[in-house]
Amino acid sequence: VTTPAAAIAGIHEFEKRVAGGLSPLQIKAECAARALQDAGLSWADVDAIYDASEAGRMQGLTIAEYFGITPRVVDTTAVGGSSYEFQAAHAARDIAAGKANVALLTYGSTAHSESRAIGTGARFGSEAQPAANMERPYGLTLIGNYAMVARRHMVEYGTTPEQLAEISVTTRRHAMRNPQAVAGLADIGIRNVREITVDDVLGSRLIADPLHLLECCIVSDGGGAVVIVSRAVATGLRTRPAWILGTGEAVGYPAFGADITTTAAARSGPEAFGQAGIRPDEIDIAMIYDSFTITVLAILEDLGFAKKGEGGAFAAGGRLAFDRPGAPALNTDGGGLSSNHPGMRGIFLLIEATRQLRGESTSQVPGARLAVAHGNGGMLGTRHAAATIVLGTE
Amino acid sequence: MPEQPERPLPLFPEPDTAPFWAATAEHRLTYQICRACGQVVFHPRRHCTCCTSGDLEWRDSAGAGTVYTFTVIRQHGHPFFRARIPYVVGLIDLDEGFRMLAEIAADLQALQVNQRVTVTWEDHADLSVPIFEPQ
């Protein structure tokens, strides 16, 4: 375990869930400016840029001009919702290598305003690709893909729909404490915004068996920015740094004999925890990509919070709520299930983890010292990308 | 009369999967095996994913296998599949040792994980789509 070289020093989450005519690029720039202000920095300080090209093709070529910066590191890692955990890992390495001092990660999306059918749309575009060619005729939706993981998890380990529903209940409870989430849920058209019960979740309609509507993330507009700085820069700033203690990256894909209930987090997690010298049971805050309930359940197991097959019991009884000791607090901002999911949620995991380590969350865990942010991109049941970031106050 | 929406089909040219789809026209479900190391390769491609050899042999599967997992699609944005809901998609472990995604034509209430299934064919102009049904 070495002294961490890089820390998150500036964060901003776009406040609204309906962008009101702003473009994804404008959302990115607004968030970048506010995150830099948060850190006490400006465009001229940024020397490394990380961009997933979610707001246009080959943005590595154009985003520096749009912002008005002159980077010496350009990283265009684009692996879906986990892009920002991958980018944070790369930024920490670039800073440790002395190639950068101030790294900027940005995200902007108007998925809600475009009525983008992320979970139930046709999955493959007009490109002829081998894997897509084998699957295109069957119309497996993104939700259906995750549902296949949930089905196998239930058959193999006896996981119940009630246990999965607990994850939606906990994240909604956290969302109801977050004024931006509450306003956002109303803005995207959810009537009677309130806490929900296990019965509410199981009473909502099935979208792809065994997953119900309330087990699926919302579709919002939104964006965010994260500024990652070197130790030398961090010591001169006013914000409390969230140090990057360990990182891990992995991808998963289908194969004969492969266990669909075990995700690539089983490889990225140990890598990150090992580098950090931290055990999962020491973690205060678990920011886990909650595209669906099953995503959280499988990843909690794969990161080592619970044994494989025991995630259901681990999440049951509200144990992952911010005010319940004995288990990490899960997605304290309300998560993708109930606060913010414009398509690629990864950046919000880093942002809320940092808020917790600063003591600024709306569901603050007193004295939170260690957090994990785990992003999952692509589709859990077939090909997916996973990155784990362990963060700490020192 | 409005036209019936059609099932999306593979796109060509796509040289890795073209032989697989050509064989479906004869109702043959094919997979590859590496002549150098014996690895089963699926989806089709030009190289062995185990030993890097390029010497792959095409074989016919008997088309029988076991349901590894499945879901029932109940909401879909594409007109063809919207007209088809509710329908089943699952992962099938074929007896020859490869796993493929496919539709399963089955009673929604009765279908179980680990159930045995066999391939059937839905014919189109230049190819047939494999669809599995319970044995």
Layout: helices, strands, pairs:
The complex is a heterodimer of chains A (394) and B (135).
Chain A: E1 6-13, H1 24-39, E2 48-50, H2 63-67, E3 73-75, H3 83-96, E4 102-109, H4 130-135, H5 142-157, H6 161-176, H7 179-187, H8 198-203, E5 206-208, E6 211-212, E7 222-230, H9 231-234, E8 242-252, H10 265-276, E9 285-288, H11 293-302, H12 311-315, E10 329-330, H13 335-338, H14 346-358, E11 370-378, E12 384-392
Parallel strand pairs in A: 2-3, 2-4, 9-10, 9-11
Antiparallel strand pairs in A: 1-7, 1-8, 4-7, 5-6, 8-12, 11-12
Helix pairs in contact in A: 6-11
Chain B: H1 18-24, E1 29-34, E2 40-41, E3 56-61, E4 64-73, H2 79-84, E5 87-94, E6 98-104, E7 116-123, E8 128-134
Parallel strand pairs in B: 6-8
Antiparallel strand pairs in B: 1-2, 1-3, 4-5, 4-7, 5-6, 7-8
Largest sheet of chain B: 5 strands, mixed, barrel
Separation, N- and C-terminal Cα atoms of chain B: 38 Å
Helix content of chain A: 25-40%
Radius of gyration of chain B over alpha carbons? 16 Å
Helix-strand pattern of chain A, N to C?
Answer: EHEHEHEHHHHHEEEHEHEHHEHHEE
Q: Give the overall form of chain B.
A: globular
**Poorly predicted sequence stretches spanning 5 or more consecutive residues of chain B:** none
Q: What does this protein look like?
A:
The complex is a heterodimer of chains A (394) and B (135). Chain A has 394 residues and is α/β, with parallel strands linked by helices. Helices cover 35% and strands 18% of the residues of chain A. Chain A is built from 14 helices and twelve strands. Chain A has helices at residues 24-39, 63-67, 83-96, 130-135, 142-157, 161-176, 179-187, 198-203, 231-234, 265-276, 293-302, 311-315, 335-338, 346-358; strands at 6-13, 48-50, 73-75, 102-109, 206-208, 211-212, 222-230, 242-252, 285-288, 329-330, 370-378, 384-392. In chain A, α2 links the parallel β2 (48-50) and β3. In chain A, α6 crosses α11. Chain B is mostly beta strands and 135 residues long. Chain B is built from two helices and eight strands. Chain B has helices spanning 18-24, 79-84, and strands spanning 29-34, 40-41, 56-61, 64-73, 87-94, 98-104, 116-123, 128-134. The longest helix of chain B is centred in the first third of the chain and has 7 residues, at 18-24. Chain B is globular, with a radius of gyration of 16 Å. Chain B starts with 17 loop residues before the first helix and ends with a strand. The interface between A and B is large, with 45 and 45 residues.
